[in-house]
Write a structure and sequence with these properties.
Number of helices: 9
InterPro entries: Homeodomain-like_sf (IPR009057), HTH-type_TetR-like_transc_reg (IPR050109), HTH_TetR (IPR001647), Tet_transcr_reg_TetR-rel_C_sf (IPR036271), TetR_C (IPR011075)
Organism: Streptomyces nitrosporeus
Number of strands: 0
Structural class: mainly alpha
GO molecular function: DNA-binding transcription factor activity; transcription cis-regulatory region binding
CATH class of one domain: Mainly Alpha
Protein name: TetR/AcrR family transcriptional regulator
Keywords: DNA-binding, Transcription, Transcription regulation
Largest sheet: none
Radius of gyration: 20 Å
């Protein structure tokens, strides 16, 4: 007779959490954030509502963790779309010695991410909900946006040390010159978001940041 094996509760919990996170992202992409419910996420994940409420207080909290998990898996080289603002899987923005080329690579990747339905729907949902819910908005900024923005700050400071960017430029303000136009066009949906547009943003921005002759 085969020996009895005790069920692995940790493994079962991990499977449930994974199913819940994946279901939250899928539902938001399919039906939109307003129509996504805890009940719907639970049904799709094959768990009870109380299982979700044991770990998260709201659907917004579930979506936040699902999006952070998606980003972590992408950065680790796993499947899934990459979050907006993160240029590529890896620890930071490339530094090839050519600032324009590095920034164009980053912004082109960001365009691809913003145009990807897998990340567009949850990003729009979190952005909108963060305006209504200041606590969620602060978490979204702290956990997702600030770490990404710091990558730009680090690259721009390196460019300052190399003499490619004026010493009096504030890197945090400079990165907003790069990111804000993309987000503005993406949020309004009035004009297409393209690689060519990303390249133009870099060219125009660097004209303002470069040392004067």
């Amino acid at each position: 007779m085969a020996p009895h094996k005790t069920p692995d509760a940790t493994r079962r919990s991990d499977r449930s959490r994974r199913a819940i996170l994946d279901s939250a992202l899928a539902l938001v992409g399919e039906v939109g954030y307003p129509r996504t419910t805890i009940e719907g996420i639970a049904a799709r994940a094959g768990v009870g509502k109380q299982t979700i409420y044991r770990w998260w207080p709201s659907k917004a909290a579930v979506l936040m963790d699902a999006f952070l998990d998606l980003s972590a898996r992408q950065n680790a080289g796993g499947d899934g779309a990459q979050d907006p603002g993160q240029p590529e899987a890896g620890p930071g923005i490339p530094d090839t010695g050519d600032l324009a080329a590095d920034l164009k690579l980053v912004l082109r990747a960001t365009v691809d991410e913003l145009n990807d339905p897998a990340t567009a729907a949850p990003t729009r949902a979190l952005t909108a909900e963060g305006i209504i819910d200041p606590v969620l908005g602060a978490q979204f900024t702290e956990k997702l946006l600030d770490p990404q923005m710091e990558l730009y700050v680090t690259r721009l400071r390196a460019a300052q040390e190399a003499g490619e960017v004026r010493a009096d430029v504030d890197p945090r303000t400079a990165l907003e010159l790069l990111i804000a136009p993309l987000m503005h066009r993406w949020l309004l949906r009035t004009l297409p978001l393209t690689h060519a547009y990303a390249d133009q943003i870099v060219d125009h921005t660097l004209r303002g940041l470069s040392p004067r002759s």
